[in-house]
Design a protein that fits this description.
The chain has 2 helices and 5 strands, in the order ββααβββ. The chain is mostly beta strands. The chain has a single domain, classed as Pectate Lyase C-like. The strands form 2 sheets. Strands 3-4-5 form a 3-stranded mixed beta sheet, with no helix packed on it. Strands 1-2 form a two-stranded antiparallel sheet. The longest helix is centred in the N-terminal third of the chain and has 10 residues. It is globular. The N terminus and C terminus are likely disordered.
């Protein structure tokens, strides 16, 4: 069964596969991929449902890409640009996203358990129902992010910016917390 959804002027049909040409380009390496992205900035890469587990994607330009249900488990996305990307239900289990840019991304239902997200930028991202169980979010920017129903159990939020974030998330006590206000930084 196919479901249509519209996200930031991008129409996605759930149940389809990644564009094989886009996936082949990415598998050639980050440098050729980034050159291709510079040459064709109007192309919105479709890597939906791709297995990118354990991939070395340091500094990859995945801005505005369709990465719905992509598997990035144990991948290295250090300083990658995932801004405005569709990352719904993506798997980032134990992935390295140090200083990655995910601002304005759609990460609803994403798995970020045990991920290394220190200094990552999630400003304005939709993180509702995301799972951050035991994730490292030290000095991350979650300002203006939607964290409703996100699982933050045992997540390390030391120095994290939560200014104007929409919160109703689970914490290490398992309780819902909405006590962190719009102007608070942990």
């Amino acid at each position: 069964m196919y479901h249509l959804s519209i996200t930031q002027s991008l129409v996605l049909v759930e149940g389809t596969l990644a564009n094989p040409e886009h996936l082949a380009k990415l598998k050639r390496g980050v440098k050729p991929w980034n050159r291709w992205r510079e040459q064709y900035p109007e192309v919105r890469p479709d890597l939906m449902d791709s297995d990118l587990s354990e991939a070395d994607l340091r500094k990859a330009n995945l801005c505005k890409a369709n990465l719905l249900k992509a598997d990035f488990s144990e991948a290295n996305l250090d300083r990658a640009n995932l801004s405005e990307a569709v990352l719904r239900k993506a798997n980032f289990y134990k992935a390295n996203l140090f200083r990655a840019d995910l601002h304005e991304g759609d990460l609803r239902g994403a798995i970020l358990s045990r991920a290394y997200l220190n200094q990552a930028v999630f400003r304005g991202a939709n993180l509702s129902w995301a799972n951050f169980n035991r994730a490292q979010l030290m000095q991350a920017d979650l300002s203006k992010a939607n964290l409703r129903q996100a699982n933050l159990v045992w997540a390390n939020l030391t120095g994290t910016n939560l200014r104007e974030a929409k919160l109703r998330a689970r914490t290490s006590t398992g309780r819902l917390c909405s006590s962190l206000t719009s102007k608070q930084q942990i």
